[in-house]
Amino acid sequence: MNSPNDTPGFRIVQVSDLHLSTEHEHHYDNWRRVAEWIEREKPDLVVVNGDLVMEDPDADADHAFARDVVAALSVPCRYLPGNHDIGDNVLFGKMEKRVNDERRSRFLRHFGEERWAFDAGRWAFLGLNAQLFGSGGQSAEAEQWTWIENSVQRFTGRPIALFSHKPLFLDHPSEADHEDPLLRQSCLDLASRTRLLELCQRHGVRLVSCGHKHQSRAFSLDGIYHIWAPATACVNGPPDRLHWGVREVGFVDYRFTPDGFTHRFVGADFLFRHENYMRKYGAPGG
């Protein structure tokens, strides 16, 4: 049997929720270890799946720092924004700072893209700006919907892997938008999710890969695999909070072949399992 390193095909390493900052080194130790692993393994591509910056989407210095740190990799990278990079979803977010053109422009200035589409290894790959869904009428959301529809149409006939910072849902695609702000901001809103999943079913999306929840999870539903990447930075929330996946740190190693794909969660055995709630414990509003 081939080992993971011997498997042919197009190899993507997905890293998510790096949460890097010029002022704090809370998670930088983990990123150094992840970067060393990537340099040894030399995948074809690294997908950086959002929340590169520590916390504040307006912290320009943190954007520059995260860009420089990730750009030091010798492997090609593609970037997607998260809520801490450009602000939370306008109608269904939780953070005080919501996505707008200025914050999107900052991300574009530092990372050069907020969505992308390409094909490799007989697969097609789409990366979406999850923060634009439920924007309350921003023109950028309408433009992205047109782009999504054109992209999946262009790749009809081959398997598609879709990358998004936020999961599409927590329990089931039919779930209503949650009243609890913490749950509401954890996934896409019902209207956006329904529209996106209809496109996925019609055009052959086989995989939806996300981050955001700082948990690892892998399941299939209605012919689509949904994989949640853990954070490289830390686990989120105290242990007694409701979780849908495994509270662990790490990243995802994908291999795409004409016959399908494989995945493995990597890093839990050599990264520090930082508990984010400990830093906030006892702080005002923490």
Question: Would you mind describing this structure in some detail?
Answer:
The protein has 286 residues and is α/β, with parallel strands linked by helices. The chain has a single domain (4-280), classed as Purple Acid Phosphatase, chain A, domain 2 (4-Layer Sandwich). 28% of the residues lie in helices and 20% in strands. It has eight helices and eleven strands. It has helices spanning 28-41, 60-71, 83-86, 101-111, 139-154, 181-184, 190-203, 276-280; strands spanning 10-15, 45-48, 77-79, 116-120, 123-127, 160-163, 205-210, 217-221, 224-228, 251-257, 260-266. The strands form two sheets. It has a six-stranded mixed β-sheet with strand order 4-5-6-7-9-8, covered by helices on one side. The N and C termini lie far apart (49 Å).
The name of the CATH superfamily reads Metallo-dependent phosphatases
Radius of gyration, CA atoms, in whole angstroms: 18 Å
Q: Under the CATH scheme, which class? A: Alpha Beta
What is the count of DSSP helices, taking H or I runs of 4+ residues?
Answer: 8
How many distinct domains?
1
Give the terminus-to-terminus CA distance: 49 Å
Class by SSE composition: alpha/beta
State the strand order across the main sheet.
Answer: 4-5-6-7-9-8
